[in-house]
Specification:
By secondary structure, this protein is mainly alpha-helical. 65% of the residues lie in helices and 0% in strands. Helix 7 crosses helix 9, helix 8 runs antiparallel to helix 9 and helix 9 runs antiparallel to helix 10. It binds fe (ii) ion (FE2) (2 copies).
């Protein structure tokens, strides 16, 4: 499937505003791929598909996650986390994606996890720093992503944890593992 066909397929599944977000994430992911030596086409495909399940009804997301046995254990957490694993299933079944790295980038874009590939990191970070994001601290995250993918991952996963704590949301174990693992890979730990 070419990128135009992919774009059209994703556009049909999302409200206009969400699709614009997807296009900005895709553009950002391709810049990061260029900067940090990832395959740009893979970054484009993964970013275009990352939110493919975002607009599906909760019940449908749940059905898909249950059907594959909920390996990451997201069903016990906020339904916001369900569209990652469900999106990987849609990418595989309806868009014919067979590349395990692309599928993982879609699957883990919301929680993160330990041992993320370069592509997974790129999609996770691009989702958080795309130009439409204007939360306090977004500029700092963009600055980190200018120079180091590892430090950007630390900053983005720290931001994500801080946000979750601030709204008293439960933290998925993969989110915590992502943060801990990012510290061991980057130079951003404050106690070094
Ligand atoms: Fe998402
Ligand atoms: Fe997104």
């Amino acid at each position: 499937m070419g990128s135009e066909q992919l774009k059209n397929g994703v556009a049909q599944r999302l409200p206009a505003g969400r699709f614009q977000h997807v296009l900005r994430v895709t553009e950002t992911a391709m810049i990061l791929a260029d900067r940090f030596g990832e395959d740009k086409e893979k970054a484009e495909t993964a970013a275009l598909l990352h939110d493919v399940a975002k607009a599906m009804p909760k019940e449908e997301l749940k059905r898909i996650v249950v059907s594959e046995g909920d390996p990451a254990g997201v069903l016990g957490f906020h339904h916001e986390l369900w569209h990652g694993p469900a999106g990987a299933v849609i990418a595989h079944d309806e868009f014919g994606i067979r590349d395990a790295d692309i599928l993982a980038a879609v699957r883990f874009h919301t929680t993160g996890r330990s041992g993320m590939s370069r592509l997974e990191k790129i999609v996770f970070i691009a989702d958080m720093i795309e130009p439409g994001r204007n939360f306090p601290g977004a500029e700092q995250l963009r600055a980190e992503a200018e120079r180091s993918l590892e430090d950007a991952l630390i900053a983005c996963s720290a931001h994500s944890l801080q946000y979750l704590v601030s709204v008293r949301a439960a933290i998925h174990p993969d989110t915590l593992r992502c943060y801990n693992d990012s510290l061991s890979q980057g130079k951003g730990a404050l106690n070094r």
